[in-house]
Amino acid sequence: MYRFLLSRQWVILTLVAVLLIPTMIRLGLWQMHRYEERTARNDLVARALDAAPVAAESLTAPGRKITTDERYRTVTAKGRFDADGEVVVRRRTDADDNIGYHVLTPFVLADGKVMLVNRGWIPADGASQTEYPEVPAPPRGEITVTGRLMPDETTEASGIKDLQGLPDRQIMLINSEQQAERLDAQVLGGYVVLKEPEPKGDTPEPIGRPGNENAALNYAYAIQWWLFAAAVPVGWWFLVRREKRDRESAETAEDTEQAAPAEPAAV
């Protein structure tokens, strides 16, 4: 009754179905793994942002790397901005994906150490890539700043190439070791994204709070792949039953035709 399953067409169809099931299961497991990763990152960011502010030097020091648990922690520091040591970070976008620069300004602490502060985004405004853009001046005098602590940027983590031979006072990546060499100073590891004081005239444009990654989407994809995996054998069995029914109908029709008496010849 099911000998048709040994035909070339049905052997190929069955092999495809057998291969699809574990593939879809694995894709569902991968999406679930992504869901767990994103959920963990969201929880980590939320805890860091909700934690009480601490002194910057309690979490970082010259040559120290910022850990995953320290990332996004709110830190404070007292000192003054060094506008002469300021640089801009090329090819950075705002919330609307407009291309411009991030403004990176050294912040000199009372003990002489330097903390790198990302003051925000400014537009390129069609300026030449070889010219230093017009940058709003930082606040003068001794002030207290508050911001989110971030690790040094790397090409591996960001995908941004650290190009050489750039115009003066322009960089591609924010790296405390490179800036320590340029400034000839002790620079705290990582950098700080400025939250307070807010810029006058809304420029540089503040860098927004990091948002949650859409972990629920990965969860939905995982369920979707597993439903597909479950649907494959059901669909295969449905096709088998339909093929069997069609073949039985064809055989019945053939038997009926053979059993029917011949019509008498016309006179």
Task: Please report the number of helical segments.
Answer: 4
Number of domains: 2
Q: Please report the total strand number as a whole number.
A: 8
Tell me the span between the first and last alpha carbons: 45 Å
Largest sheet: 5 strands, mixed, barrel
* Mean pLDDT metric: 88
What percentage of residues falls in helices of 4 or more residues? 25-40%
**Strand arrangement, major sheet:** 2-4-5-8-6
Q: How would the global form be characterised? A: elongated
Query: Which band does the percent of strand residues land in?
Result: 15-25%
Query: What is the alpha-carbon Rg in Å?
Result: 33 Å
Q: Which structural class fits the helix and strand makeup?
A: alpha/beta
The SSE order reads HEEEEEEHEHEH
Question: Which segments are poorly predicted (pLDDT under 50) over 5 or more consecutive residues?
Answer: none
Which secondary structure elements does this structure contain, and how are they paired or packed?
Blueprint: H1 8-50, E1 54-55, E2 74-81, E3 87-93, E4 99-109, E5 114-123, E6 143-150, H2 155-158, E7 170-171, H3 176-183, E8 191-196, H4 215-259
Parallel strand pairs: 1-2, 3-7, 5-8
Antiparallel strand pairs: 2-4, 2-6, 3-4, 4-5, 6-8
What does this protein look like?
By secondary structure, this protein is an alpha/beta fold. 37% of the residues lie in helices and 20% in strands. It folds into two domains: 3-41 and 215-251; 73-202, no CATH class. The relative contact order is 0.18. The protein contains four helices and eight strands. The protein is elongated and about 115 Å long.
